[in-house]
Amino acid sequence: MTKILLVEDNEMNRDMLSRRLQRRGYEVIIATDGQMGLEMAQSECPDIILMDMSLPVLDGWEATRCLKAGAETKAIPVIALTAHAMSSDREKALEAGCDEYDTKPIELTRLLAKIEHLLGARK
Amino acid sequence: MNQKPFVDDTETYAQDIVETVREPLLMLDKNLRVQSANRAFYQTFQVSPDETENRLIYELGNGQWDIPDLRTLLEDVIPRSSVFNDFELEHTFPVIGRRIMLLNGRKLRAGSHSEISVLAMEDVTERRRVEADLKAIETYAQNIVDTVREPLLILDGTLRVRSGNNAFYQTFKVSCDETENRLIYELGNGQWDIPALRTLLEDIVPKSSVFNDFELEHDFPVIGRRVMLLNARQLQAGHHGELVVLAMEDVTERRRSEADLKAIETYAQNIVDTVREPLLILDTTLRVRSGNNAFYQTFKVSAEETENRLIYELGNGQWDIPDLRTLLEDIVPQSSFFNDFELEHDFPALGRRVMLLNARKLQAGHHGELLVLAMEDVTERRRAEEEVAKAKEASETANKTKSLFLANMSHELRTPLNAIVGYSEMLQEEAIDQNLDSFGADLEKIHGAGRHLLALINDILDLSKIEAGKMDLYLETFDLNILIDEVASTVYPMVVKNGNTMHVQKASDLGAMRADQVKVRQGLFNLLSNAAKFTQAGKIVLEAERQRMDSHEWIVFKVTDTGIGLSPEQIVKLFQDFTQADPSTTRKFGGTGLGLALTRRFCQMMGGDVTLQSVPGEGSVFTIKIPADVSEVRHDVEAVTASGTIASGTAVENTESLPDSGTCVLVIDDDAAQRDLMKSFLTKEGFCVYCADSGAEGLRLAKQLHPVAITLDVMMPEMDGWVVLEKLKQDVETHDIPVVMLTMVDDPQRGFTLGAADYATKPVNRRRLARIIKKYSCANPPCAVLVVEDDAATRALTRNMLEKEGCRVMEAENGEIALAMMAEERPSLILLDLMMPVMDGFEFADRVRMQPEWRSIPIVVVTAHDLTGEERRRLSGYVETILHKAGGSRDELLERVRNELDNFATPRLLNA
B880: closest CA among B746, B723, B700, B760? Predict the structure, then answer.
């Protein structure tokens, strides 16, 4: 089963997205801040990471940079999720090393397409 | 009585008479032999009786009396008549010289002495000479009379004209015959019968023998209305008796020009008194000649308190202002005028005021040199300017706050909305799973409302981003068939809801396009949802095709409906923000009114547009036209407008999305080779480059693109670099763009950039200078500012302004001195005049830039508003020289440009 690491500090968003992904048959593990996300990425070896950008402790951009710098985590695809719809945010995310980008509110079909695209590319 | 003694007595008496008369006398017998002569004869001709008596008259004094005229007289005239009078004889006598003698002769019967001739000689030499002189003088006088250009009349005591002079006859167009011997009043049909003249001639002249400058204005038939100045002299003219000389001077013209002059003076005074600007007229000692009404009113003083006082003494010394002293005593004497000297002062009568002083030195005819000092009270204007600046600052702050607020709001609003939309969607799925159909419809309503709210927020955010210039394009290549199908299926429920049908017609060659997919989708969705909204039981058609126009491919979407349509007035309003065709439609149909405005702006951002045709009640056709490859068209469009001949599109083709102008440099240069060089160099440095081949084009692009920096060639035809620079600095849209001035010097093998950090025109306005100082002020005041300027007056003025801004001023009159000073002390700012002797501004700037430790000192170029012909010639000389030698100087030139740009702009980081 595909394991998705969802790094999201907002409880409702986390709950909603995790439940909807689970309904679609994914295994979802949760981290509530950047630091925790980084640690779980190392310990749990997820297939893909959905990363909110505005996170406490360590923000999404910094966490992504660390992930992409780490030997065992750099291959894991990261999709940035942000409420900021500015293209500069998208560029900032891509610059930090994110493989994809999506804006909130989540349009589930679009997000699922991106997830499957990245996982497919990986295989 | 004895007869004899009586006779003797008589003879003695006669002899006594003969001896007494002072006239030489000779007594001759009938043979013309001298019987005797008198003493006067002997004395006059310096001869003795022995040499004279008993001799023939012709033998006397070695024959000096043998004169043909005398022979005629004595031999022909006397024998026939016993007397002759006043026979004039001119003769050169050896002893007494040339003489004119008047001879008188009498034949006498002298008793026993028989017949004797008495010859009396009167020497009239002197008398004749005087008479000749008198004649000459009279001729001379007449000549003068005839020569003078002033008409003259000579009148006798009865006021009859003796004569007139030529000037008189010519002036009054009369002849001599019509004039002489006539009464003056009768002349020319009585045109001289003037009451004032009668008074003059009959009352005044007889009483005093002279009068001067009697002014007579009269309408003369022949010469029209004239003003004559009459002068008269009563003369005793010898045998002519008493005469009156009447001289007439025609002063009509003089009076007229005097009147004109007076009128002009009055006119000038009226202007002075009428202008609302207070004026003072000062003499060279700074004493007030006069003030105008505005001055007296403004400063609440009287003329008496003001005139003839030293300006500093006025109103209890309220004008004794140090700045004014500097101005009047240092600056004015060195230049004949100054403009816009700003003076801030606390005037007792009217409080703290900002005055703008202007002065002109005038040569005021007999008034000598005067200084006109005009004062404009700009207190209110300054206050208004400050308020505008404050307001602008406030609005900029407010705008920033707004942007920040919007960004925050979007985040804060979207997060809970995210939950609403997400949970309602989830619950719908669960309801279906658990067969809870009754919940489904309600959950759909919550979900729909949530999505609508989200759309509104997104629209508002998008629009504010466009307004803030922060909306970017995200270009990607996508398949149009897929996009159209997706949009059609999304909008389909809305179409059906109003009982409409929808037809989609896709051209077979549609294929893919490269654009911002989200924005294309949004535009298309907007048009279709509008059509669905405003059409009831009608037909909606979406057509999509590929068209080729202007050598570019375009994608055209056409949405046709049979809805309510729009009137021309409504169409005008349609694309405005927050405006629907009719306010009532908001209530009836809902919507934000932002959809079309946004759609249009999105299309325009991609180089396309939205157009509309409509007939009210019949329906509308909306057409979207977007380039099939937005990146290519955008580059090309800008390349064409930017440089005319040079395609600049290649400069940025490796970036995925379009560079915004915030990372671009604008190169303004008329020389294509120079432009190419700069472009390739700057492109390598990571800048995107736009080019303009003229000043006008440069200005247009600067406004449009707002580049991070501009490189500007000084020498260009039509509008040269300085003019362009000035215009850039005047325009609020472009004044903050750093400009690197480029020019060439005649130094062989070396190009040159003038690293001007800023720029100001002469005369430097104090406020502008203050802003410059503020901008470049050093960390520890007082900042040392070096003023390099050859004109002493301008230096003094600048120093004055700078010191007021709290700066320490170093002055140098040329580049060489300035460099020497800089070696002693490093200034924190340099104000540089370009045109100076010894070492000019270009060379100076060059030298400063060569020293690493001086490189960072900002140089502000101060230059005359208009370069003189000489300066232009000099500059063009530089350019010509360097064009032959440019090859070797390239690297250094480019290095300099790089350094200058480093100060202003950092190249964009390109995505790999």
Answer: B746
Q: Taking the mean position of all CA atoms in its chain, how far away is CA B16?
A: 102
Dihedrals φ, ψ of B115, to 5°? -85, 130
User: Are the Cβ atoms of A16 and B429 closer than 8 angstroms?
Assistant: no
- The H-or-E segment that residue B639 falls in is helix B630-643
Is A87's CB within 8 Å of B465's CB?
A: no
Q: Which of B181-190, B514-523, B586-595 has the highest average model confidence (pLDDT)?
A: B514-523
| pLDDT confidence bin for A44, thresholds 50/70/90 | very high
B472 contacts A13? CB cut-off 8 A? no
- Dist CA B800 CA B516 (whole Å): 58
- Within 8 A of B425 by CB-CB distance, chain A residues are 20, 108
Residue among B689, B688, B695 at smallest CA distance from B714: B695
Interface contact A108-B425, CB threshold 8 A:
yes
Residues in chain A closer than 8 A to B474 (CB atoms): 87, 90
Mean pLDDT of chain A: 87
Q: What is the tens place of the pLDDT at every residue in B381-412?
A: 888 888 888 888 888 778 777 766 776 676 67
- What distance in Å separates residue B525's CA from the closest CA in chain A? 17
- CA distance, residue B411 to nearest chain A CA (Å): 6
Cis peptide before B763 (omega within 30 of 0): yes
Query: What's the pLDDT tens digit per position in B861-893?
Result: 666 544 444 444 444 333 322 222 233 344 554
Cross-chain CB nearest to B418 (options A13, A19, A95):
A13
pLDDT at B784: 83
Retrieve residue B128's tokens: 């004749």
What's the predicted TM-score (pTM) here?
A: 0.36
The confidence score (pLDDT) of residue A84 equals 57
A16 interfacial to chain B (CB closer than 8 Å): yes
Of the candidates A39, A19, A31, A25, the one whose C-alpha atom is nearest the C-alpha of residue A106 is A19
Distance from CA of A1 to the nearest CA of B (A): 22
* Interface probe with B: pick from A6, A8, A13, A89, most Cβ of B within 10 Å: A13
Dist CA B652 CA A43 (whole Å): 43
